[in-house]
């Protein structure tokens, strides 16, 4: 049922995105890099985001039920420990919210590079571009540009992953 729900929500999100695309009049806006970046992010998020949102929502409900049961049991045994457990959770929630904002900002910052990387990858694999690439010897140039953009995007992800590792490790140590 969960898989079915995730697929249905994803279908609805993508249908809504492409319905919005149909409402755009003219072609000028479609050619701007800023619009292409937003469109690419919407396409990527539309495929996986709604499913993750449903999955996270169900996980949150499960966590709330477990946490309520745990705190209820802890309250009956020792109210001071229950208060400490709640106090220990507050920094984790704040840190997770900040990490999520930073990850979203990072994804926005790299969207132009990711779009260019996909464009070069499409050129390198496109049947219609194959003749020109081979005839003009541009395969190496576009591969190099694709690799440069991909490396820059990967570097941003690595920095963000390192930040998340440090924060989560510190929180785990404090919680332990």
SSE blueprint:
Blueprint: H1 2-23, H2 33-77, H3 79-125, H4 127-136, H5 139-175
Helix pairs in contact: 1-2, 2-3, 3-5
Question: Nutshell version of this structure?
Answer:
With 176 residues, the protein is mostly helical. Helices cover 91% and strands 0% of the residues.
Structure description:
This protein is mainly alpha-helical. The chain has 5 helices and no strands. Helix 1 runs antiparallel to helix 2, helix 2 packs antiparallel against helix 3 and helix 3 runs antiparallel to helix 5. It starts with a helix and ends with a helix.
Estimated radius of gyration? 23 Å
Beta strands, count: 0
Please, how many helices?
Answer: 5
Order of helices and strands: HHHHH
Gross morphology is: elongated
Distance between the amino and carboxyl termini: 36 Å
Strand content: under 5%
Considering the chains and any ligands shown, give keywords for the structure.
176 residues; mainly alpha; 91% helix; elongated
């Amino acid at each position: 049922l969960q898989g079915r729900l995730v697929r249905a929500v994803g279908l609805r999100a993508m249908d809504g995105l492409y319905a919005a695309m149909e409402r755009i009049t003219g072609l000028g806006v479609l050619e701007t890099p800023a619009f292409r970046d937003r469109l690419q992010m919407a396409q990527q998020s539309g495929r996986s985001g709604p499913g993750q949102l449903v999955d996270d929502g169900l996980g949150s409900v499960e966590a709330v039920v477990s946490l309520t049961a745990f705190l209820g049991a802890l309250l009956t045994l020792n109210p001071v420990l229950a208060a400490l457990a709640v106090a220990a959770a507050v920094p984790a929630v704040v840190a997770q919210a900040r990490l999520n904002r930073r990850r979203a900002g990072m994804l926005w910052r790299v969207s132009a590079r990711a779009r260019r990387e996909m464009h070069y990858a499409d050129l390198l694999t496109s049947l219609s571009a194959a003749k020109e690439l081979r005839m003009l010897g541009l395969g190496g140039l576009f591969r190099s540009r694709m690799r440069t953009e991909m490396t820059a995007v990967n570097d941003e992800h690595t920095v963000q992953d390192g930040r998340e590792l440090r924060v989560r490790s510190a929180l785990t140590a404090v919680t332990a």
